[in-house]
Amino acid sequence: MILDGKALAKKIESKIAQEALEFQKIYNMKASLHTILIGDDEASRIYARSKIKTLKNLNMDGEIHQLPATSSQEEVINMIKDLSSRKDIHGIMVEMPIPKNLDKNAILSNINPIKDVDGQNPINLGLLMLGIEDHVPSTPRAVIRILEEYNVPISGKNICIINRTPVVGKPLTMLMLNRDATVQVCHSKTRNLEDLTKSSDIVVVAVGKPFFLKENMVNENSIVIDVGINSYNGKIVGDADFDHLLNKVAMITPVPGGVGSVTTMLIVEQTLRNAQKLMKNQGI
After folding, report:
1. Could you report the per-residue pLDDT of 150-194, keeping only the tens digit for each?
2. Is a pLDDT exceeding 80 seen at residue 284?
3. At what angle do helices 259-281 and 5-27 cross, to 10 degrees?
4. What is the pLDDT of residues 6-26, one digit of tens each?
5. What one-character DSSP code corresponds to residue 244?
6. What is the pTM of this model?
7. pLDDT above 70 covers what percent of the chain?
8. DSSP letters along 190-241, please?
């Protein structure tokens, strides 16, 4: 069975469009996301433009703030602080990667936690550790949302996550633990990886290597969630060997059309949720 992220994204999109229109009518303004792009990474630019286009198609608004790769830490932080203070902005996101001379953690720490659409502010990551999921990294949220959409049980299941970053692996681990799963976090130093993946109910792979997860690493009951996005011979492919796994495993997400499709829509959804909460708190 293919876990269709595009279909789920369309479902979320339909709900957002109506709610965003209602928000605009009530508050005479549009929910708005502003994203900061530092440097000239083409993939980041394409992704940022895609989000803004989606927002505008859904009765929302957005803007990209382009900064040169030579920008100082102070310049970036000052821009974030300025955007965070504006009442007409409800979501803020810094596109990755950022230039190596900048301190990523210091930059993300300056995003207003209430406007943090991708859950990367350390305050929001800390709240996740306590089981509070108001602002959670979008890719891990997309994984959970797909499993919930297809009624895949998480409680009591053995989960293998091949990624330990603060963007995917670590927050996804907490989301799974919050839902009573037993989680193994694997990485480049993990021994006997094949044994661990093969004995797991759900395998989440996010290593950035095309076709990394092979047939010998899964079983017929495996549920494979592919978070990888790779360019291979002019095509976009995942970290799972999709063509060979499709008829081997119980369920699998495609690339493209899987986790990535839902991730983008959840960022848009979070922007609207932020706007609704901020305006309500202002008593408007």
Report:
1. 999 999 999 999 999 999 999 999 999 999 999 999 999 999 999
2. no
3. 20
4. 999 999 999 999 999 999 999
5. H
6. 0.95
7. 99
8. -SSHHHHHHT-SEEEE-SS-TT-B-GGG--TT-EEEE---EEETTEEE-SB-
Beta strands in the chain (DSSP E): 32-38, 61-67, 91-94, 158-162, 182-186, 202-205, 223-226, 230-232, 235-237, 251-252
Residues 6+ away with beta carbon under 8 Å from 156: 180, 181, 182
Helix axis angle, 138-149 relative to 169-178, nearest 10°?
40
What b-and-e string marks burial along 94-133, b requiring 16 or more CB atoms within 10 Å of the CB?
bbbebbeebeeeebbebbbbbbbbbbbbebbbebbeeeeb
Question: Are 204 and 233 in contact, with CB atoms under 8 Å apart?
Answer: no
Task: Answer yes or no: are the C-beta atoms of 135 and 93 closer than 8 Å.
Answer: no
- Tokens 């190596």 sit on residue: 100
